[in-house]
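Try it yourself: sequence plus pyridoxal-5'-phosphate, in.
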Amino acid sequence: MQPNTPAAFVHTRTTHPTAKAAREAVFANPGFGKYYSDHMVAIDWDAEHDWHGARVTPYAPLTLDPASLVLHYAQAVFEGLKAYRHADGSIWTFRPKVNAQRFSHSAERLGLPELPHDLFIQSLKELVQLDCDWVPSAVESSLYLRPFMIANENSLSVRGADQVAYYVIGSPAGPYFSSGVTPVPIWVSTQRTRAARGGTGYAKCAGNYAGSLAPLKEARKNGCPQVLFLDSEHGQYLEELGGMNIFVVQKDGSLITPALSDSILPGVTRASVIELARSEGRTVHERPISLTEVRDGLASKQITELFACGTAALIFPISALKSEEFSYGNDSAVAGPVTLALRQQLLDIQYGRTADTRNWMLRLA
Ligand SMILES: *Cc1c(COP(=O)(O)O)cnc(C)c1O
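Structure, out:
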């Protein structure tokens, strides 16, 4: 299979498609990552044959040898994007070429082969076209798409795998905030970081998430649904949440977000927020921002809003930053106007309620 030539995906349809009533019961309360559509995409790679065997099959468990490299050395990368149903019934996704590029960068960092970008995008179309009934139409709902690549070669020897598989699965997702966009407190991990200079922080890899889970447990124990990590060198500068980037809004309407580095994941939502904010005349500073600056800014009201952003939650207002030693901000904060306006602008583009002047949307079905 040559890059840039459309692959012929072999389709095997499930003999047990989910009944409409059962699907609608799922849509009534989808949660996140709880239910999956009827099919999945799979493509194989090996060092000799390159990418081959592209197919759409019934959703089913994988069979992995216990010695598969991924199970031991975490050679795995993934992506996350959504399929949105527009009012006319058509189905679209948001900036998938950026995800395709990021997937390549992540794969390269993990010693995995790069999937041609056209094949990445085609794989999304193949799944969504077959499972189009799985894309909900309720407000702010979507089919969350999870492409991922794993080293499935049987070997315990430590090296990049010569045999790999790529998959895409889809999971219906409801609105992240079911009862209004309410700010939440975030736990600051003061002892444990998620990424370091020269490490894998900029790659969307399974291992980064594994390292964030113990701090996340600590956050949950302390009433915070998410955790914010600081830089590994000084333990002072904001980096990002376990799976979301962070922004600060100042009273003059300007924004600050940590500059990208090899320890920060380049979020598609982050890039889009920056572009939208700049095009409406806001200044966006991409620079280091310390916890002290946030503490003082919140106290003096120089900082008026904090939010996190990522595909799953889109824009997530933050009420306070907490740890064992401190609590900055205000638990009873309401979502700020800049946060809400940016969130609305993104939603309007994603759901086709406003003109897509930047060509961010791609039709899947
Ligand atoms: C996926 C991810 C984000 C958000 O990226 P989006 O492309 O906006 O969804 C931010 N941080 C980390 C660590 C991530 O894995």
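One thing you can check immediately is this: Residues 188 and 228 are 5 Å apart (CA to CA).
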